[in-house]
Amino acid sequence: MPLFYRQNTRAYIGPFRKIPFFAVLTVVTLGVLYFGLPFVFKTSYEAPLSLSGVEAVLAVEATPAVVHLPTPKTQKVIYMTSCVAGTPSFRNDLVKLIEETELNSVIIDIKDFSGTLSFYPKSEALKEFVSDRCRAPDMKEFIEKLHDKGIYVIGRITVFQDPFFAKRRPDLAVKKASDGTTWKDYKGISFTDPGSKEVWDHIVDISKESYAIGFDELNFDYIRFPSDGPMSDIAFPLSGNRKKADVIESFFKYLSEQLHPLGIVMSADLFGMTTTNTDDLNIGQVLERAAPYFDFIAPMVYPSHYPPNFNGWADPNKYAYEVIKFSMDAAVKRFLATTTPVQLLGTEPISTTTKPLLYRKGVWNTEKLRPWLQDFDYGGNYDIAEVKAQIQATYDAGLTSWMLWAPSNRYTRGALLPE
Questions:
Q1: For residues 4 and 199, what is the distance between their CA atoms, to the nearest angstrom?
Q2: Looking at the DSSP assignment, which residues form a beta bridge with residue 43?
Q3: Which residue of 18, 180, 228, 293 is most buried, as measured by CB atoms within 10 A?
């Protein structure tokens, strides 16, 4: 029997019972040098090993190591849907775009608006969540190919927007206040209750599975209470009477406690106006309440998503540069501040006699800010000039990283610098 196998096999040194331990170590070392990494060797002992050569059995299980690329200091990212990830011809076009331009990263849907998964998990409990609509059966191998090209891979997980889980577990869903049935937004999409610990654990389980197949970073979207629906007839039984911002920050904290010790890099998508508003926008999102728990914060500062007359601009679509610059300047200022009017969990005001109340906060590295920029036509025409203007505004705000969102997955090549 050979000593080493590359895939999921065991190598036993049982027959060689009188070999001194240093000889065993020599063989193991030579094996590693011959086969190289990546291997993860898990050793189990059926009898104690000793330098005197007392009978020993060394069982070495060799399993392929999962490689995670280090996070680029400057990240230039495009988004890929699960449908495109499962379509080799389309996804190869995007990989080529990354290779031929300044792009260096891609963010791929793991769990999208449907609540279903884009790859086959090992967990039996999660297998029923695999999409029958869009998926990439070879997701692990695809990630490996991206890594071979030096491309950093982020996995996007929609959190509380989840009609699939809400249908299977209506007891965990957001409810109609009128009759207790499952609430839906104007698109007919239901949400899970952000206060549900079972939902939190479901997200943690998906996150661990995703990291285990090679995703370098996990990005969390729809980490909020729902909006854009019949809000006068909505109830959150599992969140109770707690403030929305408290519920959402509690989830952020739990997510960080569960995933950061595993070495998982985490990012959070927030509404663009969290950069300029200090209230929770009635969805539970507050910039200062998210920043401590994530490695990156990604405000979705799409100009088309700002209301008319925002900051005096009748049509924010016509001020793409200005919207991004104004918003990200505000975010940078709040990151560098040492006080905030926002009360984080467990904090007390500096002084109860000062109005408005102020709370101490740490100074956060502004490199944590990585905005989502608009590369799709909605509310206006977004072509080379508009996309380049947003990128320049990001730089002019003192930031270096950005992400481009195009639901079509067709990006404006002319706005990107060549490799």
A1: 42
A2: 60
A3: 293
- Please tell me the distance from the alpha carbon of residue 233 to that of residue 177, in angstroms, as a whole number: 5
Quote the crossing angle between the two packed helices 88-100 and 139-148, to the nearest 10°. Answer: 20
Q: Which amino acid is at 206?
A: I
**In this structure, which CATH number among 3.40.50.1110, 3.40.190.10, 3.40.50.720, 3.20.20.80 belongs to the domain 76-415?**
3.20.20.80
- 220 φ, ψ to 5°? -110, 125
Q: H or E segment at 287?
A: helix 287-290
pLDDT tens figures, 92-125: 999 999 999 999 999 999 999 999 999 999 999 9
Q: Residue 373 burial (CB < 10 Å; 0-12/13-18/19+)?
A: buried
Query: What CA–CA distance (Å, rounded) separates 31 from 39?
Result: 11
Q: What is the CA radius of gyration of the chain?
A: 25
- Per-residue DSSP letter, 320: H
- Alpha helices, H only, 213-336: 244-259, 287-290, 320-336
Instruction: Tokens for 24, please give them.
Output: 């065993």
Domain boundaries, the chain: 9-64, 76-415
Pairing of strands 152-158, 217-221: parallel
Angle, nearest 10°, between helix axes 244-259 and 197-212? Answer: 40
Looking at 337-408, list the stretches that DSSP marks H as alpha helix, in order from N- to C-terminal side.
384-396
First to last CA, the chain: 49
Question: Cα separations (Å) of 389 from 285, 297, 324, 382?
Answer: 27, 21, 9, 10
Q: Which residue type does 58 have? A: L
- Over residues 22-77, the pLDDT tens digits come to 443 444 444 444 444 443 333 333 333 333 444 434 333 444 679 999 999 999 99
Instruction: Say if residues 47 and 56 touch (Cβ distance below 8 Å).
Output: yes
The 8-class DSSP code of residue 291 comes to: G
Smallest CA-to-CA distance from 386 within 377, 397, 398 is with 377
Count the helices and strands in the chain (H runs, E runs): 10, 13
